[in-house]
Amino acid sequence: MKFRGILLSVLAPTLVGAPALPAQSSAVAVAEVPAGADAPPRISSPFEHRPADPASARIQRAAERAAGVHLVISLAERRVWLMDGQLPLYSAEVAVGKPVVMEYEGKTWRFSTPRGRRRIIAKETDPVWVPPEWHYVEVAALGGWKMARLERGRPVPLSDGSRLVVRGRAVGRVLADGSFERVPVGQEIVFDDTVFIPPAGTANREIPGELGKYKLDMGDGYYLHGTPDPDSVGGATSHGCIRLLARDLKFLYRHVRVGTAVYIY
Description:
- It is a single chain.
- By secondary structure, the protein is mainly β.
- The chain is built from three helices and 25 strands.
- A hairpin with a 4-residue loop joins β4 and β5.
């Protein structure tokens, strides 16, 4: 699909022939079963289903040989496991990256989750999302709008006679009577069929709550995080990150240390 110079294309799935999985609960954990209780439901292993493609199979084999506590994520099964050696301690359903490529002004963004071995390099509570450029490109493409960058010290005249300006950390309009009407934080800045990209450092460039209560950083802009859209978990719906339900994210945040290896296949 092409919208005002923005190209969105859907990729064919990179994994084919994955076996159908039996229905199961979103999350099960050995650690939460009290002593003396009945045996917990068996947690599936990330090694029960073998990937069809050789690259993913190599990563899975490396995960199978890993010692100590680590995370394993299957993109085909859309699940994450907290492992201790070959023993699964916790498993939860996740959302993974969608098979979409977006191009704009010579730049290309691929939203599928990359396979490979990573580490948790940082953890954060109450993270605030600062949308990258691709977010505004996507908003413009889906709305059929133009896109422009808003700069400090450069007011933009609008068709209604007001001016779009940046004042400190706020973006807003200067009306005909000279009053300042702020654009609400968390709302896209759309005027005259144009999406305006707010400058870095403004409150309008920050979206609180979009990543949930916790964030585990895997580097290069890829996170394990929450979502305000729990129905998206279980699908190929993210822009490359791994989304979890709130209870699963909280468990992993509490039990996964910085430096923990992550195997994604």
